[in-house]
Design goal:
The structure is a homodimer of 292-residue chains.
Chain A: H1 2-21, H2 27-37, H3 44-55, H4 64-81, E1 91-92, E2 95-96, H5 98-102, H6 104-123, H7 131-145, H8 150-160, H9 167-177, H10 179-192, H11 197-224, H12 227-230, H13 236-239, H14 245-249, H15 251-268, H16 278-289
Antiparallel strand pairs in A: 1-2
Helix pairs in contact in A: 1-2, 1-3, 1-4, 2-6, 3-4, 3-10, 4-6, 4-10, 7-10, 8-9, 10-11, 11-15, 15-16
Chain lengths: 292, 292
């Protein structure tokens, strides 16, 4: 699994660099976009898109531009999240955050530019993808990353800081803030591959479950993790009085929910031949075991 | 002219409200988007799009969603421009700016949400617009509002504050920061109307010239304007040592350039029957005479 992820990650980064290389002026925006995108991320979202294409034995070229678009959107969301008015983080993955490196006004515009450019990239026609399909996909990108998706989750998360939050609200935050882009990646793969309705729902359910599992694991790592590995102060959620799975259910029960969620993810894919979804099942296990 | 603009403005605002009414949750994002869009703007961009449709005797419904998308993008750019890290403005058109009203983190997300939602609206299919055409239009929206357009101009404008700027750079700023969305509006109208290549270039040239004229007039008003009318401190460009047309050419010469630019705008449309472009010519005159 680790090797598969490394291989795909390097494929994704080659694509990202190609799009970033086209940007020259204004220098600070072009450089800042490059810095923010090439920051050592795991590229889980674009990789998921490619995994779905592979499940259908499709040419990966079909998803190149859209995989890049999703990663641009993910990157912009991190740049804006890190701003002083939001999370006020100075470092991300051991490197200065974009506003610390380029200035705050610049980081706002770099984020805006990444978001806008994601749509620019997404409109570039790809052989084998009809315009109808592309419009549907672009609509989904906008839906899942805006007020109906990621930004919605982000806003409710901010509002909830330092307050006790209901389980319902916690689910809304997880489902939208991190869940929607993961779901988006899988759904775009399914649209490009012309999945049947049944397959589409199965993949969607897989994505929802691994998105949730990813988040529960994050909450657990915040308590049990190792500073060296996760690269942030362990227990920071507790300090911020953040409502998390462990704060609602306790640590042991949270681990049970995590395992159950991963089982649900795997079960969602039962309609596919087992050997075809091996990598999806491995990814689920990997999420459960990851230490950073 | 004034009456025509008022009438079209109210048509545009009905459309904008309809899109805004669909947004409910998170409340602060939905309300903030509404507040930022319905802020008393002149709606010049969407009106230009509609003017082109009228020139071709097209149904205005054809451009409804795209007119709204452009205004959402214009609104997001104002919300982010006003932020403390950028222009740090507390008021816009006599009302509190979005971050003053809702908070800074909120304003960043409200702006992000407006930008994202513009693309969501743009993808909503309109009868009579093919998917191919829509993809072309969405690509143009992203191109003209991102690093290759508005954001590019905005960044260079910020970098240039308090410095002497070459005429070349001033032209780049004007062309991109304000010019590109004006050009975008006209070009979308031309694409929707299936303008010939010659007509397309003529309309494009008209848009470039009135965009530039609008900006030169702004520079002149900053010196000659009346505080009551333009709603900002007269002479603020001078104080900020901003390079403007008057600072390079002097006031009299700037007025000459303004008139010349408006003449160029009108001349661009000579290929159309005169009675069909009456309103375009009137708009050019109106820009020259406007006092706010």
């Amino acid at each position: 699994m680790r090797r598969y992820l490394e291989e795909k990650k390097s494929y994704v980064e080659t694509i990202l660099k190609r799009y970033l290389d086209e940007l020259k002026y204004p220098e600070v925006i072009a450089e800042g976009m490059r810095y923010s995108v090439l920051n050592g991320g795991k590229r889980i979202r674009p990789i998921l898109l490619l995994m779905v294409l592979e499940l259908y034995d499709k040419d990966l070229n079909l998803g190149k531009s859209l995989a890049a678009a999703i990663e641009f959107i993910h990157s912009y969301s991190l740049v804006h999240d890190d701003l002083p008015a939001l999370d006020n983080d100075d470092y991300r993955r051991g490197k200065l955050t974009t506003h610390k490196k380029y200035g705050e006004a610049e980081a706002i515009l770099i984020g805006d530019s990444l978001l806008t450019h994601a749509f620019f990239i997404a409109t570039k026609s790809v052989e084998g993808v009809s315009s109808e399909k592309l419009i549907k996909i672009i609509s989904l990108i906008a839906e899942y990353s805006g007020i109906f998706g990621m930004i919605g989750g982000q806003m409710v998360d901010i509002e909830s800081e330092g307050r006790e939050v209901s389980y319902e609200k916690l689910k809304y935050i997880h489902k939208n803030k991190t869940g929607k882009l993961i779901k988006l990646s899988v759904e775009i793969g399914a649209i490009l591959s012309e999945a049947t309705d049944e397959e589409y729902s199965s993949l969607q359910s897989y994505a929802e479950n691994i998105g949730l599992a990813f988040q529960i694991k994050d909450d657990i790592l915040d308590i049990e993790g190792d500073f060296e590995r996760i690269g942030k102060v362990v227990g920071s959620d507790l300090e911020l009085k953040k409502t998390t799975y462990p704060s609602i259910f306790g640590l042991e029960k949270s681990k049970e929910i995590l395992n159950q969620t991963l089982e649900d993810a795997k079960r969602s894919l039962r309609i596919f031949p087992k050997e075809k979804v091996k990598i999806f099942n491995e990814l689920a296990d990997y999420i459960g075991m990851r230490e950073n």
